Write the structure tokens for this entry.
Amino acid sequence: MAIVITENLTKVYGEGETAVTALDHVNVAVQAGEFVAVMGPSGCGKSTLLHLVGGLDLPTAGRVVLDGNDLAALSDDRLTVLRRREIGFIFQFFNLIPILTAAENASLPLLLDGAKPGEARAHAQKWLERLGLGDRLGSRPDQLSGGQQQRVAIARALVTEPALVLADEPTGNVDTRAGEEIAGLLRQAVTDWKQTVLMVTHDPRIAAYADRIVFLKDGRVVEQAQLSEQQPANG
Amino acid sequence: MSVRYGLLGLLAQGLRHGYELHSAFVALAGGKDQWDVKPPQIYSTLARLQEGGLVAEVGVEQEGGPEKRILTITPAGRAELDAWFKTPVVGEHLRDELFVKLMLSLADGAPGGQTAREVIHVQREALYRDLHRVTARRQAADPRGELGQILLLDKMAMHLEADLRWLEMVEARLEEVQRQPRPQPEPRLRGRPKKQ
């Protein structure tokens, strides 16, 4: 089953002679339980693709179907709810809230969605423990290393058990070793915790953790590589 | 090649039979997935070492099963092993099949270097598959008992990454390379060299 499908997804910035086509009729599908990496030179459109899939930006043409929902057909309110429940975001610069602890940061998506504080905290704690941060629940971001901060961000992305995790250069701001750890945790999220991940990276070592790589150039899909032996299970 | 020196090294450690040497060599080189040396290659290498006087047969053992020839390293074998330890390993870095393939694929005249692009595509997918496998094995390895394995896998991952980055560089400059003249053989000198 496809979790996300893009159909002729196109994004043009600007108008007339200064128009820049960031994405040009991109057709990509990510299956449930699949780990897909998007690679390509800077300016190839990979971050634009992630933003459109995540409903953070609107396409010029074409559409995104996420878990059966055409994003363009949703009202702003429903899109906000869908983003909160069905998509987990992981960014290059973590985007944690500095005055909140690891547990508070990780429980935020559940609290925003109206969960009871105790329940939200229990879920956040479970994910932080899985990610090896069981002893840092009360630490604020400035008391954690870059790799640890990104692990809090992964916990925050996984805490709602979303249909799709979107990771934009998740290892771009940590050292090589922490980068491998983070990629390993995303791999584990797919293999052991049955999540689906779409990740943008420019690092071959990090992309190798994925099941499949989609290569973008000048806004188009120019190549794909299937890395894992098994195709993800259908349904 | 290092099967020869691997066997000499294992014999120096006191291993004695072809069968035992085969499994020990495979383990030493990182396992069957890494380097699946078949027993016949082990036996033929041992035979050559014996002919060269680096290994000697000192008896035959039979305990129910088939008979096993007992081998030992000779003083000449030890000297050869020591010399090997003191010599750098000569890699294949300067002899590159992929490079030759790329150059030939560029020369076939397909517009936009199409054939070369296909060569790059096929190679890239294969390299990424290898890197994916190495990464999975690296993740599964236990740093408390398998550090040797891990270091070998790291070496492989680093080489694969370098190859991938190099392919990217070649692809970016493909048309530029295609426009340049192909490498020509050096002109052959005829006749006797001129007197100075």
Remarks:
- Residues 12 and 78 of chain B are 7 Å apart (CA to CA).
- The first helix of chain B runs from residue 2 to 12.
- Chain B has a mean pLDDT of 87.
- The interface with chain A takes residues 121, 124-125, 128-129, 131-132, 134-135, 139, 157, 160-161, 164-165 of chain B (CB under 8 Å).
